[in-house]
Specification:
The complex is a heterodimer of chains A (164) and B (102).
Chain A lengths: L15 E3 L4 H14 L7 H11 L3 E2 L10 E3 L11 E15 L7 E12 L8 H11 L2 H9 L3 H11 L3
Parallel strand pairs in A: 1-4, 3-5
Antiparallel strand pairs in A: 2-3, 4-5
Chain B lengths: L2 E7 L5 H15 L4 E7 L5 H4 L4 E4 L24 H17 L4
Parallel strand pairs in B: 1-2, 1-3
Classes of the chains: A alpha/beta (164), B alpha/beta (102).
Chain lengths: 164, 102
């Protein structure tokens, strides 16, 4: 049985550094880990992948700061997840995502904030919290995050950053 | 009169809710009575749209039909940066005034 998940927006056990050549590989690797942790349902991967193809989630960070790598916020409907969490995933090498607000534009993405949201009406908007973090944190903080080598460092930076 | 806005995104859980919240907050500040709903793009149909004054998807969206109400792409609101959001809010306010929705 999966261990109990922590109650905050981030869980130290749900932070990953992944290596893969494309979206499907990364999504499958992470979905398997999330399923083992009890955070998602068995059909999460299928719905996550399908949704990303139809409604992409890449975010062009160059409009925030041209020095920042692009990010993505993959997610799917609440019925396929069991928790309300943000799962940070640093990618060893960038992979292609389409731009969420301009789907014809392709972006090379280096960091994912995978949103698991089984309660969209519940509390402050999760995506809003992520965007506030990305647009108001210091360049030094974000540089440390995007270059972090291990999940523990990523977790520490995000927990501190989201307490602002 | 309440201005009714329909926000839509792929999953109907994150982006559209952020747009709904941001539009309602901004237009309260601007002195308008605005009510927004957040839905999944795949659930949007012609009948649903009859209940709204303005449609605000997160990106240019092929609905399979031509909307009969004004469509304003609201994606830039997601950044929560005033410089990016203001042009979208201004466009919405322009439609409210032009269509005399207030």
């Amino acid at each position: 049985m999966a261990e109990a998940l922590e109650s905050d927006l981030f869980d130290s056990k749900l932070v990953f550094v992944e290596d893969g050549d494309n979206q499907d590989t990364i999504f499958k690797q992470v979905s398997d880990r999330l399923l083992a942790a009890g955070a998602v349902k068995s059909d999460f991967y299928q719905h996550l992948s399908e949704r990303e193809k139809s409604y992409p989630t890449g975010i062009d960070m160059s409009v925030v700061n041209p020095a920042y790598p692009n990010v993505a916020i993959p997610h799917t409907e609440g019925e396929f997840v069991n928790v309300r969490k943000v799962v940070p995933i640093r990618l060893e090498k960038p992979i292609e995502f389409a731009n969420m607000i301009a789907p014809d534009q392709k972006l090379q993405v280096s960091f994912l904030f995978m949103i698991l949201n089984n309660d969209p009406e519940g509390q402050a908007n999760v995506l809003a919290q992520i965007m506030d973090f990305l647009t108001t944190s210091s360049a030094e903080t974000l540089k440390s995050l995007f270059q972090a080598e291990d999940p523990a460092t990523i977790y520490k930076i995000l927990v501190a950053g989201f307490k602002k | 009169m309440t201005v009714k806005i329909l926000a839509a995104c792929g999953a109907g859980v994150n982006s559209s809710h952020q747009i709904k919240d941001a539009i309602e907050k901004e237009f309260k500040k601007r002195g308008y009575n605005v009510q927004a709903d957040a839905v999944m793009v795949k659930d949007v149909n012609e009948d649903m749209m009859k209940n709204y004054d303005i449609f605000t998807p997160i990106a240019k969206t092929d609905l399979g039909f031509t909307p009969t109400i004004p469509v304003i792409n609201a994606g830039p609101i997601l950044y929560r940066m005033p410089a990016m959001a203001k042009p979208v809010y201004d466009k919405i306010e322009g439609v409210i005034k032009k269509e005399n929705l207030k």
